[in-house]
């Protein structure tokens, strides 16, 4: 195969520009795989800049490989400068650490791509992969044209389309048209001169046919391989226009050492919840009247009372990862039979005796493609198309074929009237799993984790109280922060690492509570499924991949598996009613969220110093004129000190105005601890109010006045709202800081007026 003559002059510059345009158009083939952002603009600017370098070098030299070599060096330097610079610094020239930082960023991108689902949010690391890929495509395409084989440039351009083609996601038709048109124009610009047109045309035809055949063979050969890559699901022919961008499945191998990655925003389920009256049968239609909530009898039925939809449960934990338990025995699902987990008593007795409320749940599957069917955590009947099996040990519904878009199924669920009072007297039960739900991994910090659990549960008289102490400890945003990024492992015990880093997402919170519960002798497991989602305009509930969630379940005698929610409210909202100390409790009547207690200091209130009523002494300046240099210096020092004090005061005032309830609670706790008034992490804010009053009165003999008690309750209420309510507390700026000052000031006054304890009578002898 003969090569065409190298391009020169305006034709060479035009060909490079066309290749740059084709590369930029091909970048937009990734639009439906990646979430919207600045990545496309950044990539196109990098491609245009590299094209300018290639055209400039080719105009200045006749060496065929010089433009590619220079372009490669310039592209590498630009990438190192942008992505290898130290955090927070602007670097114009790469240094020795730029390569290490860039390669580390590349490694993060590979992990993120492998763990993410579509559409993937583009971070700095994944933007690096897109930019480098586009620059390499342009260099390869330009090199084929420089070597006289312009038809082969199509192979370089098509690499940007492979993810879209192989994974079966929609592609922008305009991007395909622009890229194809630019490619044809490159072939036209690169056509042979008239003297060799005949021979060259035949060679070009063979090259074009060979390139097309190579693309087809490459696509068919690589498609099955790419389809097996984790987190990438289906592949097929490309489609154009809008629509779903691929199926979503639930990952049930929960690794505590991996970051959450980017959860897909695709809609996986839509469902409606409606109450069923005492004599009202369940309807057959899978789409009941639009209603996000209804009333069955005297009790409201909502998605919140229904709780999450669970796909499966996990019991086996090796210290780092939860592994699915293989099904041992399953039975076909009978539409008339109530599906119950092991040991569950709810639903086995008449509903009148259990106090359960019947709710009908109608589900429509969207992008979910999974062999596990999401169902409520409560006993339920199921009517679903296809062959489904029920595993009572896992309390999971599985099938031989995955769910599909448009599939509908209905359930009738028994929602128990479970309360904290019911569980307070419950004993630890036996789920009949031969101790699997009590097994603990033999890690280097197993004893440390157990000791921490005992410390948190200290003072709890019942298993339920111990569980609530664990949930309160983990849910406090003072102790832990919800973060989808996980710190690097520091030991062989992932639970201990989380207790040290105090940052994680639902898997870390659920695992830690489950493992700590086992150290206290309470059987536990982890449920995996979806949070209730959001309410749509038509009244239905919409669940996306972002609602994928994990939570712990603890086993109690006579009640079976009971769900708890240790993950902070920022992600989950309020916990279940039976584990929510804020449920059915209104704010104290004497405390207004928007009003500080009487006498509390208001923000920004400062008093100006009084002016000196006496003027300067006559003749003093003349008598002390020899000290004027010292006077100027002293004045300057005073001015600087005054400005510094003003800045410090304003800064502290601003910090006081910006206090969150958790920060105010931590400040109050630290200041009271210095005065000998303390409480444990497991003590709820509501109980802490009584604890503070008792300890102050015990140590000083003086009871807190109404103003201090009102301020203390106001802070505790604000903390409870922040921890357990999806709404933010409404507070005046500076109110929290004022309440803290009121409590501390009152405790100081009580200590100063401490009443002497009466002496014990002397025994008569």
Coarse morphology: globular
Average pLDDT metric: 77
Class derived from helix and strand content:
alpha+beta
Quickly count the helices. 23
What is the rounded Rg?
34 Å
Number of E strands: 23
Low-confidence stretches: 194-201, 223-245, 278-298, 343-353, 586-634
Helix content: 40-55%
In terms of DSSP E residues, the strand content is 5-15%
Largest sheet: 6 strands, antiparallel
Topology record:
Elements: H1 9-27, H2 39-60, H3 66-83, H4 96-115, H5 124-146, H6 153-158, H7 162-167, E1 170-171, H8 173-189, H9 197-227, E2 239-240, E3 254-255, E4 267-275, E5 293-296, E6 299-302, H10 303-306, E7 309-314, E8 316-317, E9 321-323, E10 331-332, H11 351-354, E11 357-365, E12 375-376, E13 380-383, E14 388-391, E15 396-399, E16 408-415, H12 420-424, H13 446-457, H14 463-475, E17 481-482, H15 494-501, E18 503-504, H16 506-519, E19 524-530, E20 534-535, E21 541-544, E22 548-556, E23 560-563, H17 569-572, H18 620-623, H19 628-657, H20 661-673, H21 685-700, H22 706-724, H23 735-752
Provide structural commentary.
The chain has 765 residues and is α+β, with helices and mostly antiparallel strands. The strands form 7 sheets. The chain has a 6-stranded antiparallel sheet with strand order 13-16-11-4-21-20. The longest helix has 31 residues. The termini are far apart.
Provide a brief overview of the structure.
It is built from 23 helices and 23 strands. Strands 13-16-11-4-21-20 form a six-stranded antiparallel β-sheet. Strands 12-7-19-22-23 form a five-stranded antiparallel β-sheet. Strands 3-9-8 form a three-stranded antiparallel β-sheet, with no helix packed on it.
């Amino acid at each position: 195969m003969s090569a065409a003559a190298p391009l020169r002059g305006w034709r060479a510059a035009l060909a490079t520009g066309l290749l740059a345009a084709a590369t930029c158009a091909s970048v937009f083939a990734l639009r439906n795989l990646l979430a919207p952002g600045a990545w496309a603009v950044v990539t196109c600017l990098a491609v245009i800049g590299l094209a300018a370098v290639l055209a400039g070098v080719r105009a200045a030299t006749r060496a065929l490989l010089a433009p590619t070599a220079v372009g490669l060096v310039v592209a590498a330097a630009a990438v190192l400068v942008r992505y290898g610079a130290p955090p927070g610094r602007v670097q114009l020239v790469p240094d020795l650490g730029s390569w290490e930082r860039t390669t580390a960023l590349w490694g993060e991108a590979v992990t993120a791509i492998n763990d993410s689902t579509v559409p993937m949010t583009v971070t700095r690391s994944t933007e690096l992969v897109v930019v480098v890929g586009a620059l390499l495509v342009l260099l390869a395409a330009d090199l084929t044209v420089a070597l006289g084989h312009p038809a082969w440039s199509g192979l370089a351009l098509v690499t940007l389309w492979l993810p879209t083609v192989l994974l079966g996601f929609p592609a922008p038709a305009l991007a395909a048209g622009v890229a194809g048109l630019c490619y044809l124009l490159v072939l036209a610009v690169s056509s042979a001169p008239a003297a060799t047109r005949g021979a060259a045309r035949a060679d070009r035809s063979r090259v074009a046919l060979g390139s097309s055949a190579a693309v087809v063979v490459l696509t068919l050969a690589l498609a099955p391989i790419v389809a097996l890559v984790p987190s990438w699901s289906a592949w097929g022919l490309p489609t154009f226009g809008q629509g779903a961008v691929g199926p979503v499945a639930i990952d049930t191998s929960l690794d505590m050492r991996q970051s959450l990655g980017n959860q897909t925003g695709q809609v996986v389920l839509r469902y409606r919840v409606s109450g069923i009256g005492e004599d009202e049968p369940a309807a057959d239609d899978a789409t009941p009247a639009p209603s996000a909530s209804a009333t069955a009898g005297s009790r409201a039925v909502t998605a919140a009372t229904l709780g999450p939809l669970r796909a499966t449960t996990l019991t086996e934990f090796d210290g780092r990862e939860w592994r699915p338990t293989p099904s041992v025995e399953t039975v076909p699902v009978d539409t008339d039979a109530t599906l119950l987990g092991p040991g569950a008593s709810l639903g086995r007795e008449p509903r009148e005796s259990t106090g359960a409320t019947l709710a009908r749940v109608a589900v429509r599957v969207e992008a979910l493609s999974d062999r596990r069917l999401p169902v409520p955590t409560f006993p339920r009947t199921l009517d679903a198309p296809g062959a489904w099996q029920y595993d009572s040990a896992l309390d999971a519904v599985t099938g031989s074929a995955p769910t599909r878009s448009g599939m509908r199924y209905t359930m009738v669920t028994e929602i128990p009237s479970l309360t904290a009072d019911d569980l307070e007297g419950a004993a630890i039960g036996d789920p009949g799993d031969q101790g699997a739900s009590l097994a603990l991994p033999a890690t280097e910090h197993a004893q440390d984790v157990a000791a921490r659990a005992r410390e948190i549960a200290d003072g709890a008289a019942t298993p339920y109280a111990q569980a609530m102490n664990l949930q309160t400890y983990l849910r406090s945003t003072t102790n832990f922060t919800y973060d989808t990024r996980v710190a690097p492992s520091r030991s062989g015990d992932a639970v201990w690492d989380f207790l040290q880093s105090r940052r994680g997402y639902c898997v870390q919170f659920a695992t830690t509570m489950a493992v700590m519960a086992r150290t206290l002798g309470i059987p536990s497991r982890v449920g995996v499924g979806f949070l209730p989602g959001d309410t749509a305009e038509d009244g239905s509930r919409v669940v996306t991949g972002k609602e994928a969630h994990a939570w712990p379940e603890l086993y109690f005698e006579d009640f079976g598996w009971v769900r708890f929610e240790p993950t902070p409210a920022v992600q989950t909202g309020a916990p279940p009613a039976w584990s929510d100390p804020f449920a059915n409790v209104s704010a104290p009547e004497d405390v207004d969220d928007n009003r500080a207690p009487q006498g509390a200091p208001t923000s920004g209130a400062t008093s100006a110093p009084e002016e000196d009523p006496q003027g300067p002494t006559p003749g003093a300046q003349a008598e002390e004129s020899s000290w004027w240099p010292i006077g100027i210096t002293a004045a300057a020092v005073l001015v600087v000190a005054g400005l510094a004090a003003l800045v410090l005061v304003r800064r502290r005032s601003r910090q006081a105005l910006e206090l969150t309830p958790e920060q105010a609670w931590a400040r109050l706790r630290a200041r009271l601890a210095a005065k000998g008034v303390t409480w444990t992490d497991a003590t709820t804010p509501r109980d802490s109010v009584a604890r503070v009053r008792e300890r102050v009165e015990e140590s000083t003999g003086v009871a807190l006045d109404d103003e201090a008690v009102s301020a203390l309750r106001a802070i505790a209420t604000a903390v409870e709202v922040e921890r357990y309510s999806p709404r933010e507390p409404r507070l005046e700026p500076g109110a929290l800081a004022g309440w803290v000052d009121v409590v501390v000031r009152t405790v100081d006054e009580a200590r100063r007026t401490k009443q002497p304890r009466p002496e014990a009578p002397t025994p008569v002898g």
